[in-house]
């Protein structure tokens, strides 16, 4: 079998010409084996009809295999010629033929240096896209955190509004002054509690 690379033909046909020839070869070989089996069975039937025949089945099988090797050798020789003709004249694309999907390369030729530069540019753009995607994901996470904080702040504002309404209901108009008053009273209570603890310690002593 030919081992010449035929990449352009593979692009056009969708299969390698060598694979096609191999399948043809195997199909012909299978047919040859089947024919030899039929021939052998016919010979055996003819010999069974002759009572005076002294040829055994083993001799017939040996002769059949010998004939099969001869036919296979002849077939291989003929197939090599057929393969050469098919690969050169049928399954090959001439060098002056351009496939429709490759006409863009003819209209916009590109050197190897330019192609490498384009590949480098594509790699940089892909890296930038990945970085922007990561930054966008980080921003979305931060926005989600801000939504959670905003929801908590709204709860705190609602709590203070409710507290202010309670203060108004009990005769205290200014919530800020009420909060300062409560803070001062807490400090006084803490001072009194500290004095009580000191006195209790002295009494115990």
TrEMBL record:
Stretches of the chain forming a coiled coil according to its record: 108-135
Gene Ontology annotations of biological process type: cell division; kinetochore assembly; mitotic sister chromatid segregation
Keywords for this protein: Cell cycle, Cell division, Centromere, Chromosome, Coiled coil, Kinetochore, Mitosis
Pfam families: Mis12
Subcellular compartments: Chromosome, Centromere, Kinetochore
Cellular component, GO annotation: MIS12/MIND type complex; nucleus
PANTHER family according to UniProt: PROTEIN MIS12 HOMOLOG
Family per similarity comment: Belongs to the mis12 family.
Name under which the protein is recorded: Protein MIS12 homolog
Species of provenance: Odontophorus gujanensis
Gene label: Mis12
């Amino acid at each position: 079998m030919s081992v010449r690379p035929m990449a352009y033909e593979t692009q056009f046909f969708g299969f390698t010409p060598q694979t096609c020839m191999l399948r043809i070869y195997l199909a012909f070989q299978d047919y040859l084996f089947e024919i030899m089996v039929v021939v052998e069975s016919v010979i055996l039937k003819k010999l069974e009809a002759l009572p005076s025949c002294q040829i055994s089945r083993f001799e017939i099988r040996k002769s059949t295999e010998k004939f099969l090797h001869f036919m296979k050798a002849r077939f291989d020789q003929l197939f090599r010629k057929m393969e050469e003709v098919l690969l050169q004249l049928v399954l090959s694309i001439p060098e002056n033929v351009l496939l429709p999907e490759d006409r863009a390369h003819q209209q916009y030729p590109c050197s190897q240096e330019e192609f490498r530069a384009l590949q480098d540019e594509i790699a940089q753009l892909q890296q930038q896209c990945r970085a922007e995607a990561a930054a966008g994901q980080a921003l979305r996470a931060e926005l989600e955190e801000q939504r959670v904080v905003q929801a908590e702040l709204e709860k705190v504002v609602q709590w203070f509004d409710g507290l202010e309404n309670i203060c108004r209901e009990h005769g205290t108009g200014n919530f800020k002054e009420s909060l300062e008053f409560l803070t001062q009273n807490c400090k006084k209570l803490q001072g009194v509690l500290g004095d009580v603890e000191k006195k209790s310690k002295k009494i115990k002593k």
